[in-house]
Write a structure and sequence with these properties.
There is one protein chain. The chain has helices spanning 12-21, 80-85, 87-103, 143-163, 187-196, 216-229, 248-258, 282-287, 297-322, and strands spanning 2-7, 27-34, 52-56, 68-73, 105-116, 166-172, 175-176, 201-204, 210-212, 214-215, 238-240, 245-247, 264-267. It has a single domain (2-178, 214-243, 275-295), classed as Rossmann fold (3-Layer(aba) Sandwich). It is globular, with a radius of gyration of 19 Å. It is of the alpha/beta class. Strand 1 (2-7), helix 1 and strand 2 (27-34) form a beta-alpha-beta unit. The chain is built from nine helices and 13 strands. Helix 1 (12-21) packs across helix 6 (216-229) and helix 5 runs parallel beside helix 7 (248-258). 37% of the residues lie in helices and 20% in strands. The strands form four sheets. Strands 3-2-1-4-5-6-11 form a seven-stranded parallel β-sheet, with helices on both faces. The structure holds uridine-5'-diphosphate. Residues 79-80, 174, 186-187, 190, 202-204, 209, 211, 248, 270, 273 line the site of uridine-5'-diphosphate (UDP). The site of uridine-5'-diphosphate has 14 residues, from helix 5 and strand 8.
C-alpha cells in the first residue's frame, strides 16, 4: 500500500492528477500540500475519501513525520503573469520545494516532477527532442520559471546519481482545460473568459507565434501511465504534450468564431515570448506505447468553454446564496 504526496494538488493539473490517484486500490494515503496561491480547494471538493487529506502550507515549509512512497511535485504557478509577479516565490516553490520534499521520500521511494517545455526557451530547433538543451535567457523576465524548473531537474538528476532515487521527470507543453483559473492569464482561458463576457480577444503581438496545446485529460493520461501505472524504467526527462502546433492567432480566430465573430485586438507582445514550441514525441511513444493526445483542439476548446460556463454559473449562484 502506498503513501502518496502531491504538492500543488489543488491546482489545475494537480487536481486532475489527484482524481487519478484516488482511483488506485493500492493507495493507503494521499496528502495534498498546497498554499492556495494559484490553487483552489474547490478543485478537490468532490473527493470524499478517508484516504485523502489537504494541508494548506507552502511546500518548502511543510512539516510531517510521515515518509512517502511516491511524491509528485507540481507546486508552482505556470502562467507568465503569475510567475512574473512573484518570481522569487516561484523559484522557491520549485527548487526549495523539491529539496524539502526529497527529505520526505521513503527509502526506495519515487519522485515525479512536472517540468516544462519552457526549459527549451525560444527554441532554435523544431520539434524539440528531450536532448535539445534549449535557448533560455537566465536573467530574463521568464527566468524565474524557466531556470527554477531547469535547476530543479538538475537537483533531481544529481540526487538520483548520488543517492539512487526512482525518478520521473516530465516536460509539459501548454496544457489547457477545465479547472484553469478564470484569472489564470494564459491564452486559451483568457480568450474564453473574454468571449464569455463579449469582450474583444487580446492577441499579444502578431499572433504568428505558435504553441502545441494539450488538453488536460490527455496530458494526465500520460502522467498516470508514466508516474505509476506502466512498468517504466526511465527517469526522464520525457516530453508530454500534443504535437499539433497552432499559431495563437488561429486559436483566437477559432474562439472568436464560436462566439459570433468577436473582434480580435492585437496588443503589445509578451516579454521574450517564445516564437514556437512543439514536442518531439518519439521518446514518449517508445516509453508509453499507444499513448497520444486524442482530444483535438477544436473539441478541447468546446469542453473548456462548457466547463467555464458551468463554473462561472456556480460561482454566481454561490454569491447569491451568500447575500
Ligand atoms: N497570449 C495571447 N493573448 C493572451 C494570452 C497569451 O496572445 O491573452 C499568447 C502569448 O503571448 C503566447 C501564447 O499566447 O504567445 C501562449 O501564452 P500562454 O501564456 O498561454 O503560455 P506560454 O507563454 O507559457 O507558452
Amino acid at each position: 500500500m502506498s503513501k502518496v504526496l502531491v504538492s500543488g494538488g489543488c491546482g489545475f493539473i494537480g487536481s486532475h492528477l489527484c482524481d487519478r490517484i484516488m482511483r488506485r486500490s493500492d493507495l493507503e494515503l494521499c496528502i495534498v500540500v498546497d498554499n492556495l496561491w494559484t490553487g483552489d480547494v474547490q478543485n478537490l471538493a468532490h473527493i470524499r475519501d478517508d484516504r485523502f487529506r489537504i494541508v494548506q502550507s507552502d511546500v518548502e515549509r511543510f512539516q510531517t513525520d510521515l515518509r512517502f512512497d511516491e511524491i509528485y511535485h507540481l507546486a508552482s504557478p505556470a502562467s507568465p503573469p503569475w510567475y512574473m509577479s512573484e518570481p522569487i516565490r516561484t523559484i522557491s516553490a520549485n527548487l526549495i520545494g523539491a529539496m524539502r520534499l526529497l527529505e520526505l521520500l521513503a527509502p526506495g521511494g519515487r519522485f515525479g516532477f512536472t517540468s516544462t517545455s519552457e526549459i527549451y526557451g525560444d527554441p532554435l530547433v523544431s520539434p524539440q527532442p528531450e536532448s535539445y538543451r534549449g535557448s533560455v535567457d537566465c536573467t530574463g523576465p521568464r527566468s524565474s520559471y524557466d531556470e527554477s524548473k531547469r535547476c530543479t531537474e538538475s537537483l533531481l538528476f544529481e540526487t538520483r546519481r548520488t543517492k539512487g532515487i526512482d525518478l520521473r521527470v516530465v516536460r509539459l507543453f501548454n496544457v489547457y482545460g477545465p479547472r484553469t483559473r478564470p484569472d489564470d492569464g494564459r491564452a486559451v482561458s483568457n480568450f474564453i473568459m473574454q468571449a464569455l463576457s463579449g469582450q474583444p480577444l487580446t492577441v499579444y503581438g502578431s499572433g504568428e507565434q505558435s504553441r502545441s496545446w494539450g488538453y488536460v485529460e490527455d496530458i494526465v493520461d500520460g502522467l498516470e501511465r508514466y508516474f505509476w501505472s506502466d512498468p517504466v524504467n526511465y527517469p526522464g526527462p520525457l516530453n508530454i504534450g500534443n504535437d499539433r502546433e497552432i499559431p495563437v492567432i488561429e486559436v483566437a480566430r477559432y474562439i472568436s468564431k464560436m462566439f459570433g465573430n468577436l473582434p480580435i485586438h492585437h496588443v503589445d507582445p509578451a516579454p521574450q515570448d517564445p516564437t514556437n514550441r512543439r514536442p518531439d514525441l518519439n521518446l514518449a511513444r517508445r516509453t508509453l506505447p499507444g499513448w497520444k493526445c486524442k482530444v483535438p483542439y477544436e473539441k478541447g476548446v468546446q469542453l473548456t468553454v462548457d466547463w467555464f460556463r458551468a463554473h462561472l454559473a456556480q460561482q454566481y449562484q454561490d454569491q447569491l446564496t451568500l447575500i
